[in-house]
Amino acid sequence: MTHVWESQLPLLVVLLVLGTMAKVITVRSGGEPGALSRLGPAVLVPGRLRVPALLVCAAGELVLAAGLLATGHAIFRWATVAFFAMSTYVLLELRRRRPDAGCGCFGEVSSAPVGVRSIGRTVVLTGMAGMSVLAPVPGWVAVLHPSWLTAAGVALLLVLSPETAELIERARFRAPCEQRRGPSESATLARLRSSGAWRAHREGLTSLEPYDSWRELCWRFFAFQNHDHDDVVFAVYLSGRRPAVRMAVVGSEGSESLTEYTPVSA
Amino acid sequence: MGYPSVERRRVLAAAVLGRESDPAPDNADPLRAVAGEILDVSPHLIIIETPDGTEERLVIAPWATAWHGGDAAPTDLPVGAMVMMRALRDGRVVERIWADATRITGMILSIEGRRDLAVELDCGPHRGHRTITIPYRASGRLQVRHPKFEPGYLFDAIGIRQDGGSLALLPATSQPPYLARAVPSPPPVHAGMAAGISGTATWSDTFDEEERGAAYPMLERADTGCAQAGVSCAGLPYLSVGSLLRVTNVCSKRAADVPVVACGCLAGRFCDRCVECDTSPRGRIVELSPFSYVELGGDLVKGCFNAQIGLG
Q1: What is the ipTM of this complex?
Q2: How far apart are CA A115 and CA A102, in angstroms?
Q3: Residues 5 to 44 of A: which have CB under 8 A from any B CB?
Q4: Which of B82, B123, B272, B304 is most buried by a 10 A CB count?
Q5: pLDDT tens for residues B12-46?
């Protein structure tokens, strides 16, 4: 039974180290003004605090990884539980406030918008960290004696990782989504029409054909009008088999205020 | 499907994706571009008529320089010349004047003549054809940087407008060695993610007068109705007409938010570098209107500056 509690420790250590590396690389390569791919919870803090926030987070992860690996002290284990629980909350907040931002968990590979899978992954990691609190041995012992439960944990995380799909696409196309020629407008419109957001708002539109459509980065936007002469705008992510669809109602051109803001995912 | 208002796109995209725009960049000593027709010029004062018909009197700084086909003193500029000026102090003090400057960018269609050459250029699907003259005195200097004076190759020069025509005087770049239709593909990016989008920013005089905007190469062909869009050797992301670019002049450290107003299909065909303050990465990333270019600290005669872009 003891093997069960410590089985996920190697995974947690590896993921924390990968997270540290990804954040440091993001900071080192991110010298550009107003980066095009906005990543992770850093978008929630003001511009000048983004780099310090990322570095503090990276240092925290490294300390946790070292603590888990070298000692069996409870403080590192509980801190890891707290870290992943907080990550879950931050991702939920990110999804609510900035639906276009990726989770940035593994640098710019994690640029797809935060979805149920990313959030599910942090929930699972919180559970794994919770299991590891009861482990009787320090992390290095678990690393030297991996069990089949460790492999099961890896498989579960791979299933929950949206990055695997992105890595496969990259191997196929050799360019990130915003540089690839997108699917045709009609194909994207067909994807929109099969989404829940479309079905929920179709009735209110004056016309089923968009009056304007444009592409920016990895999103295609379709603008419609509803019976109150407000603009109804849908954004469809251009990558993946079940792309994210967002929707908002914006007051007509005279009034700049947003009358309603309803993020909906397909 | 027309564009009811491309500015509206920005509002709609920000609303649906919950984007908050970063505050506009703050430059310490902002530059202003002023354009107009010279009514009178004296050693300390220049009087111009702006395109909207108002008369403006501007002080000429003691260190000011002018260009009219070559370096000139401000007092030597002819009355009636169209000038573009870089001004300090809320646009009241002029420090650089370009008179009748024009930029001639296109693909060579034909070349005729023995001494003075008449060159017909294809300036892209939005800008049509243009016939310019290369005077004999400038042809040697141009040919040093443009060794292929043959149909199908690109041409980029700076010159002056004279008697309703354009004279090419200075090469604006080294001519790309490939045919205009054979643009090299961008380097694979995943071999190490590029640190940001850097490259060359150039200018073009095909924008409306006093317009602040940019032509961007990487637009979807279906959205713009331009069959030549979406070509670039710089590895640019797709954007749309109406997107806001934050352009930073790496040389002068000035930044500004510039909207994409046109398709830069010709700029995307140039895979050249700018050596203004340092050697830039390959490829033209943005083609600015003269107003935006001058306000970012660029010199019209040099033709380019090293730039970085991001989303504004």
Answers
A1: 0.81
A2: 9
A3: 29-36
A4: B304
A5: 888 888 777 666 777 777 888 888 999 988 888 99
